[in-house]
Amino acid sequence: MSVRVRFAPSPTGFLHIGSLRTALYNYLFAKHHGGVCILRIEDTDRTRLVEGAIEEQISSLAWAGVTFDEGPHVGGNHGPYTQSERFDLYREYGMKLVANGTAYYAFDTAEELDAMRVRQQAAGIAPKYDRSAMRNQYTLGEHETQRLLEEGALHVIRLKVPLHQDVRFSDVIRGEVIVNGREIDDQILLKSDGFPTYHLANVVDDHLMEITHVIRAEEWLPSTPKHIILYQAFGWEPPTFAHVPLLLNPDRSKMSKRHGDVMVRDFAAKGFFPDALVNFVALCGWNPGSDNEFFSMQELIESFSLERVNKAGAVFDYQKLNWMNGEYLKRRDVHDLARELHPRLVERGFTYCDPSYVADVIALVRERVAFLDDIAEFADYLFGDTLSPLSEASAALLSGNDTLMQALDSFRQGLDAETLADESAFKGLAQRSAEAAGMKMGALMKPLRLVLSHREVGADLFRTAQLLGLERCRARLEAFCIR
RNA sequence: GCACCGUUCGUCUAGGGGUUAGGACACCGCUCUUUCACAGCGGUAACACGGGUUCAAUUCCCGUACGGUGUACCA
């Protein structure tokens, strides 16, 4: 049987980084097995819909390189892939369960249910639908139930959980899980607005769409027994389940904003490379068992397996993500990077943006930064003539020192095209200038860097001066020396 | 509260009955560069606890602690 998996988000907001990882694992698993990865939209909660969310999630996924073989945007022969378009199906299947005695009608109001919960909590009992004390088919009787239905009374359909039976299933990642039927609530399957709850829609669709493996986040683990009971009620074979560990905040709670960005689009906006993000996120909770940490999508597909997914949640380490992005920055083709950076430099009004020059600058400084955009900041003195203000300490170092002044001035006078073309000539000039003024060459290097770039740190000074070119080097030295 | 899941350096993790418990990020140090960095090299740092089983347990079993998730007419 060929593998069919699905990623089933709700259109309630932007794509979360944790969702990206779940989608990615589904995608990798499907591709690894030559199977099919499906996108299904679970929009059964009409109150939480967010305009444009589906499109945003699909485009975030596409940005990251996760694509689908079937889905609302690409079609397929198991559609429709949006649950609100399958509305009639769920009622039909809900009725089947009522008919075969595994589900029942209930007429309780939200207030009655709230009151029930309050009573139970006060009594120290686990909150759970009280089949015998509430207004449902069993307490009301056949006639009253029929009468209410004919009157069009608001009602739901609830799952009739077999109380005296252990529910068990085998999770690929967690092994055997056993839950006592007594612990499971009579879950609402069909809401009073006619829409199904997640549980019903999910099970019906997974079955109808012939899903073989349900790979989802660990937060679903506690409701899986309900799903197993549903499969049994329908007489269907359940799929294989794999519950992947959560992505965590530094305090080990479920990853959320407050501690940093969590939406995929935020990471994109920040300048992360999609393949770096995917690489990093794939490694949060999964590893191939080797020391290698760098994987292209293709390599991930080849080496991915559910058996190597961890059980414990993973704290999302932004610092290591930054590092990884930097590694991708170093490996990428400089000309591609230059093409990417060019428009942003122009946008910022820099004057020296010739593509091949930009590529040279990137090649020189990229090992010192983690993001492409950082380069514009880091090397602003190479792209433009407006230098950033000197720090107080730097200004102090350069001010009121005749010896230094003298050394810099003689360096200025000696600098010519030949010197700039040859590293040893450049250093020779620095050395002669320093010694003539009575100082060491080492002591001249830092001030020289400050004059040329207004920065205390930077790439190799000779290469920097070379990229600056004679005119700009002179101009900057003159601006400092002649005043 | 109850149910379920989890627990190897600060973080991501490898490993697995007998190992100097390995790697990566971060941190610290050294070297190099006649500057700052970069790089290279090195270092600090972990099997939650208690009982079993066993010649031997970090590894298997049972408890405890701690943490997380769930407990909706949300997904």
What order do the helices and strands come in, and which of them pair?
Blueprint: E1 4-7, H1 17-32, E2 36-39, H2 53-64, H3 87-99, E3 103-106, H4 110-122, H5 137-140, H6 142-151, E4 156-159, E5 166-171, E6 175-180, E7 188-190, H7 198-208, E8 213-217, H8 224-234, E9 240-244, E10 247-248, H9 264-270, H10 274-282, H11 297-303, E11 314-315, H12 318-331, H13 334-347, H14 355-365, H15 372-378, H16 380-383, H17 392-398, H18 402-414, H19 417-421, H20 423-436, H21 441-453, H22 461-481
Parallel strand pairs: 1-2, 8-9, 10-11
Antiparallel strand pairs: 3-4, 4-7, 5-6
Helix pairs in contact: 1-11, 7-8, 10-12, 13-14, 18-20, 18-22, 20-21, 21-22
The structure holds one RNA strand of 75 nucleotides.
Oligomer: single chain
In the predicted model, the low-confidence regions spanning at least 5 consecutive residues are none
Number of strands: 11
Question: From the helix content, strand content and strand pairing, which structural class follows?
Answer: mainly alpha
Strand content: 5-15%
Biggest sheet character: 3 strands, antiparallel
Large-scale geometry: elongated
The overall average pLDDT, rounded, is 93
> Over the alpha carbons, how many angstroms does the gyration radius reach?
32 Å
Distance N terminus to C terminus?
82 Å
Order of strands in the sheet with most strands? 3-4-7
Instruction: Please tally the helical runs, counting DSSP H or I stretches of 4 or more residues.
Output: 22
What is the share of helical residues? 40-55%
